[in-house]
Specification:
binds NADP nicotinamide-adenine-dinucleotide phosphate, NAD(P)-bd_dom_sf, globular, two-stranded parallel sheet, 7-stranded parallel beta sheet, single chain
């Protein structure tokens, strides 16, 4: 007997895929949305290749965050929703509304439909981008109490989209959510085993390092968490009776310097890591490059800044025990090399 019915939005995504794999393995019945059902066969095959069990308990339905169609059908008969789908594009974008509108309006669409369908709890995948941007660069340790200051310096369109979407979600459940509960997840950079041949957000960094796409390492630090632990946290947050109304920061340990990510990959992957740069780039070189390159421009304020974050709340209340960031880096690189996505 399946344990309960869960809707996961955006089944073609990296984090959503890992959530679906774990939910099926734990015995849940899973429904997932795609923008178009023409993608179903591919998602099934990608998840199958990743070791999916109980695939007969997975169903697909069509819905887009930018329209109302399909959300009532997607949420009908559902107990829990993991709202994971959102456009992921950190850095420079031509029009910030391409991210903000689907993130915020889409979240409200999912919440409205979930409330109307009598869903018990929605777990929303927000992000560390909704926590730690726009603040002074000091040694503050970020927690769930912090919020990104959307008009602060260095906040990109993605950071705005995540912050505005999460704020709107809290406002919605407080004013119009009825009995439905909301819990939000705030992962730092998510890395780990690639599903299929599509890379999401932070895994691109590992691909660029493996492919030697940069002449050297800028003086940048990344807080990293493993995708398998992020999926696990979503499932813990879904059923723990004590966590309705809570935010959880999903991080693990100090941010890792980019050159150390490179050194780790070089030490583990021999010839496949031959293009990994060995040099670090002086800050002045990045600053000059930024005068001509909008992508580099967004990195300049982050040079030399190691953000601190605490996962104490997730450990204590969810009983979450994440693996080391090194495992996420190695698993990401290994899966890319095995699939011929990088390092050739
Ligand atoms: P991903 O692989 O790019 O997945 C994003 C998903 O959102 C895809 O399924 C995509 O569908 C869907 N989507 C985008 N726009 C949509 C729209 N208008 N309507 C319906 N679906 C739409 O990214 P991910 O890394 O798994 O990210 C998933 C969630 O985690 C996002 O909310 C992201 O902000 C959050 N997060 C990610 C990271 C990270 O480092 N990766 C860190 C913190 C938080 P298509 O396949 O059709 O494009």
């Amino acid at each position: 007997m399946p344990r309960g019915r869960v809707l996961v939005t955006g089944g073609s995504g990296f984090i959503a895929g890992h959530c679906i794999l774990q939910l099926l393995e734990a015995g849940y019945e899973v429904r997932t949305t795609l923008r178009s059902l023409t993608g179903e066969a591919n998602v099934r095959s990608v998840l199958g290749e990743a070791g999916m069990v109980n695939g007969q308990n997975l169903a697909f339905t069509e819905a887009d965050l930018t329209g109302d169609a399909g959300w009532a059908e997607a949420t009908a008969g559902i107990e829990y929703v993991l709202h994971v789908a959102s456009p992921v594009q950190p850095g420079h974008v031509a029009d910030e509304n391409d991210l903000i509108v689907p993130a915020r309006e889409g979240t409200l669409r999912v919440l409205r439909a979930a409330r109307d369908a009598g869903v018990t709890r929605v777990v929303l995948t927000s992000a560390f981008h909704a926590v730690s941007w726009g603040h002074p660069h000091d040694d503050h340790v970020f927690t769930e109490r912090d919020w990104t200051i959307v008009d602060g310096s260095g906040v990109d369109a993605y950071g705005k989209s995540k912050t505005l979407a999460e704020r709107s979600a809290w406002e919605f459940v407080q004013t119009s959510g009825g009995r439905m509960e909301l819990t939000t997840m705030l992962p730092v950079a998510v890395m780990g085993p690639v599903l299929g041949h599509k890379l999401s957000g932070s895994n691109h960094l590992i691909q660029r390092i493996l492919n030697g796409d940069m002449p050297g390492f800028p003086h940048l630090f990344f807080p990293i968490v493993d995708v398998r632990d992020v999926a696990k946290a979503h499932i813990l947050a879904m059923t723990n009776p004590a966590v309705g109304g809570e935010r959880f920061l999903l991080s693990n340990g100090p941010a890792v310097e980019m050159k150390d990510i490179g050194a780790l990959i070089r030490s583990r992957f021999g010839p496949a890591a031959k293009k990994v740069p060995r040099r670090t780039l002086p800050d002045v070189v990045v600053r000059v490059g930024a005068l001509f390159n909008p992508e580099l421009k967004s990195l300049v304020p982050e040079l030399g800044y190691r953000k601190n974050s605490s996962n104490e709340k997730a450990r204590k209340i969810l009983g979450w025990a994440p693996r080391d960031p090194e495992d996420a880096i190695v698993a990401a690189a290994e899966s890319m090399i095995d699939k011929g996505l990088a390092g050739a």
